[in-house]
Design goal:
Length: 544
Amino acid sequence: MRSGARIAVIGGVFALMAGGVGYGAYTVVGGGGEDDGLRTTGTSSKVRTGPPTEAEITGTAKDFLKAWAAGDATAASLLTNNEAGAAPLLAGYTEDARVTRAVITPGPAVGTKVPFTVKATVSYEGVKKTLSYASELTVVRGLTSGKALVDWEPTVIHPQLTDGATLRTGQASAPEIKAVDRNGKVLDKETYPSLAPVLASLREKYGASSGGTAGVETWIEPEGSSAPRTTLLTLTKGKPGKLRTTIEAGAQAAAERAVKRYDQASVVAVQPSTGAISAVANNPVTDFNAAMQGKQAPGSTLKIVTAAMLIEKGLVSATRPVECPEEVMYEGNTFHNLKRFSLADTDTFTTSFARSCNTAFIKKIDEVDDDSALGKEARDVFGIGLDWKTGIFSTDGSIPEAVGGGAAAQYIGQGTVQMNALNIASITATARTGTFRQPVIVPQSLDGRRLAVASRSLPGYVTAQLNAMMRATASWGTGQAAMASVGGDKGAKTGSAEVDGQAVSNSWFTGFSDDLAAAAVVQSGGHGGDAAGPVVAAVLSAGR
């Protein structure tokens, strides 16, 4: 307990009375009973075991919350099973978060869990505001002491607090931004929930240069410097600066609606002629922007890159026949087509592409005779692995070197290939025009950052054949049903990515309509055309 402080009991409300300037009064509401002081434990040679009793749960929670509300970090941390981890966060509640009064109201225990509400007064340079929230704690038996203790987690302090993060109050690191789409329409996280992590990242990176002034806030400071802050309370508002993005509000709204049809889904739309990102959406919405940061196998959508490589090497052409048996063996690994279908030997490579024949692609690996060729094509033409500078943190895909069966799996987007919706949308955009234009979510002119540039474009005849094969996929191939509602000059490629330990494959789909390309993934969605296809179609239809 701090020097000069004493606990007073007034009508069942525990208040800390303290002398000295700037030391607030803390209260905890609830509890009651005969033990109105901090509980002490007598010495015993016998260590108790087993789950804590109902009385222990209630008593420990009461004592912990009382000590926390009193601003006594030392006493409160001693009532946890991780004193070293708890003490700094409990002390920081007053010193860093600037909480000068907290009313903590515990609810009835549910098993070993005790829910509670907090009404905290945050004070900074003469300004006061209330931060209200609900959390819970769990009481466990100490492994060595046998005492009933609070099982320490940062979420006890605040439900959004994670390991390594801290709660702070002060001047914001960057002013708020008034983000607008390419046409000047305001973009906010209430209207477009998926943009919440995007807007937070843009604020951190461009807020100071957007013409605004910072206010005073209470926020969660994440561990490390890459993740954006989470603002919990605004004490004084600054002046927001205006930031123009490449987002198109209509496409963004459609993307938001489309991903909500599934438990886990992501979609990105890119303008092939410029690289401008028109939409990005995820469900669920978290601080992790899966659409731009995810890393997973994209299935047969990667056949766009494989096809480009094979055409460039003269091993196939859109109008020449290729073999498509139901299965093929390569270096001890068996690969087969979905439902083990096969095509006639007279069917062209366009048919194999449009029907997504795995074996037609893998049978060409011996003729390529270079296990690194696919990765080179992806990097040199499609810009994969060139450290994209989109304007916010993103990953730009990878096709690591592989040999044997691993290299064969990469031809159909399996194995060690790692992509996200942004990467596949960009691949489609590149196939559409023949030239890689690095995706951006804010114009390069904003900060003069150096964008990634591929070493070469596709030859014109390759671009023409890719577009023709994707049009076939959309008009009569595996993408026909999904793309039926999409107008304009349209094309598509489906994908189903198998994942170890997952009963149903991930659904991938990518497509274009005129000057817009999009890609989506639905976790455990099955065939690409069934789940991810309608998501892409919705965005393409809205963004044209």
